[in-house]
Structures are given as C-alpha cells and as structure tokens.
Amino acid sequence: MPLINRLILYGVIWMSRAVRSKVSFKFTPFSNKQMQVLTWWRHPKLKELEAIICDGSVRAGKTLIMSLSYILWAMTEFDGQQFGMAGKTIGSFRRNVLRTLKIILWGRGYKVHDNRSDNILTISKGGKTNYFFVFGGKDESSQDLVQGITLAGFFFDEAALMPQSFVNQATARCSVDGSKLWFNMNPEGPYHWFKTEWIDKAAEKMALHIHFTMDDNPSLTEKVKNRYKRMYSGVFFKRFILGLWVMSEGIIYDNFDPETMVLDIPDDMRFDKNYISVDYGTLNPTAFLLWGRNFKTWYARDEYYYSGRKTQRQKTDAEYVEEMNRFVEKHGLDKKSVTIIVDPSAASFITALKNEGYTVDKAKNDVIDGIRATAAAMNEGAIKFSRTCKNLIQEFGSYTWDAKASLKGEDKPIKEHDHAMDALRYFVFKVIYRKQTTLSKKPSWLS
C-alpha cells in the first residue's frame, strides 16, 4: 500500500499497542491540517519545500503529529544518517514529546534504543537505521552543543523559546542533500525574531506555514476547549487560545477582579497547609506573603512589606529573620508548620532562615511562565486575596509590561512596584503549578 494511503488509514482507524509498555492508544480521525503535516513531504506540490512551521494555540494537536511525521520522513527518505531534535530543555523534550512518541513507534514495529546518557535515539525498521540526537536550546550557550555535527534534518519543539543563535547554528548543521527543518511553537510577540525571520519570510525560506487552533485537534471535546479558554486572559488568551502573535502591553494581570478575588477572611477559617513566599530586597522593598489552603483554594492571608529605600534604613538578614518570627507567631504558626519560598538570589537570607530552623524552598524564577501560571490560577479561582494585603492589591494596578522590551520581541514586566507581585508568582509557580505538572505525568495524544 502506498505511504500516503497508509497514513490516511492510520488517521482514521489507527490503534496501536506498545509491546514494551503495554499502553494502548486509540487514535481519533486526524484533522485536515494534521494530515497535511503527516504528508507534506510526499505531496507533489510541497515536497520540494525545505521547512515546515506549525504555530498556534495550546492543545491544537501539533506537537506529536509534527514529531511523528518527522520520524516517518526520516525513516522513509534516509538510512544511516544523523538527525537533530530539540526542546527548550532536554527534560521538557523528553517529557512533552519523546515518551509518547517512543510508545507509538514501538507499536508500529520500530525498534527504538534510547541512550539516555548520550541523548541519542537509534531507530530501525525495514533494514534502515538512523540516529537522532536530542538537544536543549535554552540559552545562548546552547549553540555550542550542535557545532561540528552533520545532520540530515532538525525538529525544533517550542522553537520560539529558543535563542536565535541556537536555531541558526542547528539549521546550519543540516547540510545533507534533501535535509528539511521542522518548527513547532506557540506564538510570542509580533517582533519576536522567529516571527520576523521565519514566519514573515516563509516563502523566501521555502517553508510551509500551518496555523493551528484547538479546533484543529479532533480529540478535544467542547468541554475541554472551554476549560482552556477559561484558564487564560489578556495577552495569554490571544496567544495560547487564539494563536496570535501579539504584543504584551498594559496591565499584566488584567484579569484581576477585586470584587470576586478580594475578601475578608473569616476568623474561623481553617487551613491545612501554610506557606510564606518572599521577595527579598536590600534598598528595594522586601515582601512576605502568608498563604493558607482551605479545601482546594489558596488564600493570601496576610502580608509583610518593608521598603529600605522609603525609610532610608535597610534591615539586616538577622532583623528580617526576627520580622519573620513575629509574622509567623502573629498567625498562631510555628517554624515546623510553615514552608518559606524565597527568591533563589537571596542566598544569605536563605541561610539565615535555615539557621533559625525554618524549612526553605528556593523559588523558580521563570518570570513569564510564572506570570502565565499565576494568571491561570486567578482565572480558575485557585487563589484569593485577603483585604489586609494592601500592597499586593495595590501592585495589581501598576504591574505593567515593558513597552520598549516588547518592540524588541521580548516579554518583560517593568521592574517597578513588583515586589509583592514577585512573591505572588514565586508561590504559584512553586506550589500550585508544580503540583499540577507532577500529577499530569501521562501525556495526551496530539498535545
């Protein structure tokens, strides 16, 4: 049976059971765009193109269909060649792409040997064997990882999160005759380097550009689509739901609604978990936020806020530890009943807290991911705020995107009036977001 006919058949009735994992997958019919991704490299009018770019909303069915088509293309067109595959980090690529991809390939009769120490996949079928090197493209230094290697193709997952230097170096490695490039991503700003250099120049780059929305993923029900739509607002809704390359501008948390999110916490409300998130400053303000969980909702119960610049007197680490002790005792807690989340750059304060007997977790300082997770938590009603958190509530109205950075294709908050906002983000990204990702270990088909 011809390859294209086989692929169409897979899209309609394909069910596979992985021999090694014993995990079964039931595939829904592919959408037209998914079928185009699967077959473009054999289409008479498209096969001469040198790249494919898939962008658009989250859960749109592009990630795994891209990676599967990439492997099918490589194993059909080449034998004994080397290929590249990359995510923002190797860990995220393994988690988001490789785990499910390997199961599907095993179910289709491919032999897949994963050398995790060297991050090389050796894939064989029908007398052909090819080698797939896995890279992480998280920063400028990542370009050094791909120097010197000769490749027949490269698949970039989350390409918009990678530095241009890494993508340029990786694409330059694809010098084998017939090599092709595969790019998959969610949108960023309209001045992002990938938008201006690749999407806007798709014809010049001989690239096929396919734009996805959640409606292009037949496996999603309307209920699931609506849940994702509720999660996002503002710029994140435009990018991750509508799939648009739009600027970050104005108020960051434009979804903040004091009527529904701010309340007087009853004295008799009980909390089964307690955290304190801290943004530590020298001359800049230091902010503590006390968090308590009641059923499934986390409440910012109270705040401590001190500005050394405003008072013209900066407190020492020892003085801030004493302030922490009073803050904890004020709410009937002790050192064993609370975990403190601190900006990882505040090394001396972290040491002082540990010496005092507190349990301390270092915050994850991924600003944009943290902002997105916080906005989603607000939309879902996962966090609410006590009226006593006056500085936190005030900062919601002044925490804005940096317009100058947006014109350079970067998403950055203005570094003013952001100290309680940072403490808020540290908590959400470390506690709420971490628990969600820990529980979501089983990947969904076509995520």
From TrEMBL:
Residues 287-428 form the Terminase large subunit gp17-like C-terminal domain. Keywords: Viral release from host cell. Coiled coil: none annotated. InterPro entries: P-loop_NTPase, Phage_terminase_lsu, Terminase_6C. This is Phage terminase, large subunit, PBSX family.
